[in-house]
Design a protein that fits this description.
- The structure holds two protein chains of two kinds.
- By secondary structure, chain A is an alpha+beta fold.
- Chain A has helices spanning about 10-20, 65-80, 105, 215-220, 225-230, 270-280, 300-305, 315-325, 340-350, 415-420, 435-440, 445-455, 455-465, and strands spanning about 95-100, 125-135, 140, 155, 165-175, 180-190, 205-210, 245-250, 255-260, 360, 375, 385, 405.
- Chain B is mainly alpha-helical.
- Chain B has two domains: about 5-225, no CATH class; about 230-585, M75 peptidase, HXXE motif (A middle domain of Talin 1), CATH 1.20.1420.
- Chain B is about 55% helix and about 5% strand.
- Chain B has 20 helices and eight strands.
- Chain B has helices at about 5-25, 45-60, 70-100, 120-125, 145-160, 210, 215-220, 230-270, 270-290, 310-315, 345-350, 370-380, 405-430, 435-445, 445-475, 490-505, 515-525, 525-545, 550-555, 560-585; strands at about 100-105, 110, 130-135, 140, 190, 195-200, 510, 510-515.
- The N and C termini of chain B lie far apart (about 70 Å).
- The chains are: A alpha+beta, B mainly alpha.
- At the A-B interface, helix 1, helix 2, helix 9 and helix 13 of A face helix 3, helix 4, helix 5, helix 7 and helix 15 of B.
Chain lengths: ~475, ~600
């Protein structure tokens, strides 16, 4: 007996295979997870990057011209806006009241915002929406009479900020079925230093954190019929999950259309989402929203000089819209790992995938490269009752006070790298994916209970799957 | 010596012998042309023996105990072959998975770069005959699959919980005499999910390991296909790349240190002459640093997720009033705010980079690096004909502007931090250090390295140089979009960036000239290679023809001299980008731009 028998074919093939598979690329290679159909979460637009810049790359298949436009949008996305009038005419017009001075202040590195670390820190990437009961002429929320639809904590020189929001947390404990305990932090919000007297007594509040910027153009390109096909407003199939499309006002089209963006799917398009954020968050006017947000009682605000009419010209809005549509989704990591695969199966079994779904084929889009892609946002883009724990009690078009849009999960595993934190949900109360799951209620209660009942290894596998997205 | 002891020792030697050759394989990259050719199924006894003799001291074994290896081989084969047959098939797929995501570096570190399922890790460990011990004392020779699994699962649970904590002790002493592990010094260190370290020890005494997983070991010593010429060349190209990266960072560090000397002299005794000397040193250093920018974009040392310093070294474009006064805002900046920033130190400016106060946060609030130093030396550029003209008296107590002492402290802290960061990069790419990133890089699969090189150059030319630094500035007519807007050094920066791409493509840096991507492309498509080189030459010439100062050249339309030169530069760079993307396809690597 000697080692000569080692040369038999199967062993050779093992050795060859091992040799071929020996490399361990830091940047995932396109073929590495080809076996998993959703490895390329954004189809041909998917990029391969695991660095802090992972959310900042343009769609991989973008044409040269479109990369040019992307670079222009990138420039204005990062630009700090200053008080008008200023020598930098391109970028004046901040405020008069505002939440931040640039897009990237909240969407840092195109990633996700976080609530303040400590109670005395200002709210930057977390804003507070305000409204009173009733609807406006388009069916949308009615802003608070003195403060408008959004609290702006800051003002330019000579203009008061509207108030200082503060969040405090209370730890609430619970236990998994196996006895392991967990703790969730329940937020309480208050607003100090109100500049224009107390809020109307019926005021409703909704804190919302800045979401990551990736894959937005793909979401815009998902055909309405695909989204509608998952709607089940009255739970006709009796699975306990309704799924309701929001119908919101399109300023461009002057009619109610499907809402796709925002925590309550209250924005119909990236153009309107972006222009709305420019006005609401930075105080920059656009063709879509030409007048400022000063309410009649805000005299100094009304008197402050403007940076132009509008402050952000149409071509720049177009550049920024292009930029926000073309930011690419990174490929999954470890998609073929067996634990991750197990986690994916558990994710489906627990019913998470009933709402966090993917596999859409994108339809026509202004950026042609985004069309015809098989994409996996892990969201049905519909509204769901998420229970009392998460309810903000503030309706937004067809979304009631308990409903939220299913959040896309792509890029979830890279939040830590890109944004430096893993705070999740609409106001960043969950400190990680597990806590986010545990906050689910309402239509997701059954799925959450499945998670609570899982043995630790299964929970770890599920989380490993989420981290691979 | 009892029979049992003897047998144990005997198998241990065998495990060792396999390991020896296995280790040899791991130390020499698979496709390294210098690697001794594995000759089919035969175990090279002489070679193994020689290696064994070389290693036994390290592992604390006495060869004399075990007799002659030839007899051992027979005995071992007799005992093991049955179990071997049963096990090898089941293991093969797991081992493949493990090998895909795990590797042993030349410095005996086991690196797991992807999440790998426990069973695969266990197999990998067993295939390399390592026992394991975690820093907190949980230990075991990974000898039963189930036990190895349990160990690895415990780790994984902990990994999920602690999420990259850096403060764990990396090395602690292994308790002796626990009966499980040998008392030799730790041989391997395992690195899971970036920074969680574990210690590994060899458990050679569990000789039946070799029975349980013989095929794995055997596979590592036999039947490795001879490296193809392409793969061999890829290996050479990657090695040459490491050499030029190392040389370039060395020069960049030298440049920063020379700058520091001049800045120290200037702050000690501010005068027009000492300020000019500092500015000259900055410009000289930039030419070298600019050429390193193609070493970005693949999660390497410069922009690695954990330790990357790019944002701190070369953050741009910056909002200068975050640092110091600007026209109309004499109180602006960290320099003028002792109320917010009591002291100005390296730590303070590093901490505040890309931050800000109140609502004024964001990516433009750059407080460190080349451009922060540039602004402190030159000041705002208000001139149509030249760069910024900050008076040296801004740094003289009682001179112009306020807070001169703090300004001096800022400048000194900024250059110290720059030197520190460039030292980190230089060390990471030190090819003579076996534990450096460079050594790991060289040992990695050539194809992976070719991919990294291509990612670096295509991203620099396809995203950053042509678009963010040239097209955007030209289109928006915004002087703030100039890369080095205070010193008017932007054209030189652009030239350095094009050189950065050319260097990597050609495999040369300064006088160091070797094989490069060009050789790989040329083997596949000589026309394409010619075109890439021609377009790079054209890009360089076009950029060099942009009239100075750059901030005036961007103001005109396409018909002006500046506009023509800029348009020509953009066109040439875009053409180079398209060709390089074609090259990526030819070389069969994925980059982040693709049609």
């Amino acid at each position: 007996m000697n080692f000569r028998w080692l040369s038999i074919a199967p062993i050779l093939s093992v050795a060859f295979a091992a040799a071929a598979a020996c490399s361990s690329p830091a940047i995932p290679n396109q073929d590495a997870g080809a076996a998993d159909d959703d490895y390329l979460l954004g189809g041909d637009t998917t990029v391969f990057d695991v660095s802090p810049l992972a959310f900042s790359l343009p769609a991989r298949n973008l044409t040269s011209d479109h990369r040019d436009t992307f670079a222009l949008g990138d420039h204005f996305f990062n630009r700090n806006w200053v008080t008008a009038p200023a020598s930098t005419i391109d970028t004046d017009g901040l405020g008069p009241t505002y939440n931040a001075t640039s897009c990237s202040a909240c969407h840092f590195k195109d990633g996700r915002g976080a609530p303040p670390d400590k109670p005395d820190e200002p709210f930057i990437a977390l804003l507070v929406r305000l409204s009173i009961p009733g609807t406006d002429e388009h069916g949308g929320p009615v802003g608070e009479p003195s403060y408008g639809g959004q609290l702006n904590p800051f003002g330019v020189l000579g203009v008061l900020g509207e108030g200082k929001p503060v969040v405090t947390y209370e730890e609430v404990t619970g236990a998994f079925a196996d006895g392991e305990t967990y703790s969730l932090r329940k937020p309480t919000y208050r607003i100090d230093g109100l500049a224009f007297g107390p809020f109307a007594t019926t005021t409703m509040f909704s804190p919302r954190v800045a979401p990551a910027m990736i894959g937005l153009g793909l979401i815009e390109a998902i055909p309405e019929t695909s989204i509608a096909s998952f709607a089940d407003i009255n739970d006709g199939n009796g699975d306990g999950i309704s799924g309701k499309p929001n119908s919101v006002w399109s300023v461009r089209e002057q009619k109610r259309v499907l809402g796709r963006f925002g925590w309550k799917a209250n924005q119909p398009s990236l153009e309107q989402q972006g222009a709305g954020a420019f006005l609401g968050d930075i105080g920059i006017t656009t063709d879509l929203f030409p007048s400022g947000e000063c309410t009649p009682v805000q005299i100094a605000c009304l008197a402050a000089p403007s940076g132009g009419a509008p402050e952000l010209e149409a071509k720049k809005v177009a550049w920024i819209t292009h930029y926000s549509a073309a930011l690419a989704v990174p490929a999954r990591r470890n998609a073929t790992d067996e634990t991750v695969r197990k986690g994916k199966a558990l994710f489906t079994d627990a019913g998470c995938a009933n709402c966090h779904r993917g596999g859409y084929l994108t339809g026509p889009h202004a950026i042609a490269e985004l069309s015809g892609q098989r994409v996996y946002p892990y969201s049905d883009l519909l509204l769901h009752d998420m229970g009392d724990g998460l309810a903000d009690g503030r309706p937004d078009f067809d979304a009631d006070g308990r409903e939220w849009r299913t959040t896309p999960l792509w890029g979830l595993g890279l939040y830590k790298t890109v944004s430096g934190h893993t705070f999740l949900l609409h106001d960043g109360r969950a400190r990680n994916s597990s806590e986010a799951i545990l906050w689910h209620g309402g239509e997701a209660e059954k799925s959450k209970q499945r998670y609570v009942a899982m043995p630790p290894l299964d929970r770890a596998a599920l989380l490993a799957f989420l981290a691979s997205l | 010596m009892s029979i049992a002891q003897s047998a144990r020792g005997l198998f241990a030697l065998f495990a060792g012998a396999f390991e020896q050759d296995g280790s040899a394989r791991l130390e020499v990259p698979r496709d390294n042309p210098n690697r001794p050719k594995a000759r089919s199924q035969h175990f090279n006894l002489d070679q193994a023996s020689a290696q064994w003799n070389g290693r036994r001291k390290l592992w604390g074994f006495e060869l004399a105990e075990f007799g002659h290896h030839k007899h051992l081989r027979r005995m071992h084969a007799h005992i093991c072959h049955r179990r071997r047959r049963q096990d090898h098939r089941a293991n093969a797929s797991r081992v493949r998975t493990a090998h895909r995501h795990m590797r042993v570096t030349p410095s005996h570190r086991i690196v797991i770069e992807e999440q790998v399922e426990p069973l695969a890790i266990a197999n990998f460990l067993q295939s390399h005959h390592v026992g394991a011990k975690r820093h907190d004392g949980v230990c075991g020779p990974a000898h039963f699959v189930s036990e190895a699994l349990a160990i690895v699962r415990r780790w994984r649970n902990e990994i999920l919980k602690i999420e990259r904590r850096d403060d764990e002790p990396h090395h602690t002493t292994v308790p002796r005499g626990n009966g499980l592990l040998d008392e030799a010094s730790p041989l391997a260190e395992i690195l899971i999910e970036n920074d969680v370290h574990f210690l590994y020890k060899r458990c050679m005494r569990f000789s039946w390991l070799i029975c349980a997983f013989p095929m794995v070991a055997a596979c590592t010593v036999t039947s490795v296909p001879p490296p193809s010429s392409t793969s061999e060349l890829e290996g050479k190209v990657a090695t040459q790349y490491a050499v030029i990266v190392s040389a370039n960072y060395k020069d960049a560090l030298d440049g920063a240190m020379a700058l520091k000397t001049k800045i120290d002299a200037f702050t000690a005794s501010p005068s027009e002459a000492s300020l000019t000397a500092a500015k000259d040193a900055w410009i000289k250093a930039r030419d070298v640093y600019g050429q390193t920018e193609s070493f970005r974009f693949y999660d390497g040392p410069i922009d690695n997720e954990k330790t990357g310093v790019e944002g701190r070294v070369n953050g741009w474009p910056l909002d200068e009033q975050f640092i110091d006064y600007v026209e109309g805002s004499p109180e602006a900046g960290i320099v003028n705010h002792p109320d917010l920033y009591a002291t100005i130190t390296k730590a303070v400016i590093a901490e505040n980079n890309e931050k800000g106060e109140g609502a004024n946060t964001g990516e433009k609030n750059i407080s460190t690096g080349w451009h922060a130093i540039e602004f402190l030396l030159w000041g705002q550029d208000q001139s149509k004909t030249g760069p910024g003209a900050r008076p040296h008296t801004d740094f003289v107590d009682g001179g112009t502007a306020k807070n001169q002492t703090r300004r001096r402290e800022y400048l000194k802290a900024a250059v110290e931090l720059l030197v520190e960061d460039l030292t980190t990069l230089y060390k990471a790419w030190d090819t003579s250090d076996k534990a450096s990133y460079a050594s790991t890089f060289i040992a990695d699969a050539p194809k992976t390295n070719i991919q990294k090189m291509m990612l670096g150059i295509t991203s620099l030319i396809g995203f950053e140089t042509s678009r963010e630094r040239l097209y955007t500035a030209f289109t928006t007519k915004d002087q703030e979009e100039e890369h080095s807007c205070f010193s008017d050094n932007t054209r030189a920066d652009l030239v350095a960036n094009v050189l950065a791409i050319e260097n990597v493509y050609l495999g040369r840096y300064g006088s160091n000239d070797g094989v490069g991507l060009t050789d790989l492309v040329r083997n596949k498509d000589a026309t394409l290679d010619d075109r890439i080189k021609a377009n790079m030459t054209k890009s360089l010439a076009a950029v060099r023809s942009i009239p100075l100062p750059f901030d005036q050249a961007i103001l005109g339309d396409n018909a002006t001299e500046g506009g023509k030169a800029i348009t020509a530069s953009i066109d040439a760079m875009n053409a180079t980008t398209e060709d390089l993307l074609q090259a990526a396809r030819v070389l069969e690597v994925t980059v982040n731009i693709a049609k």
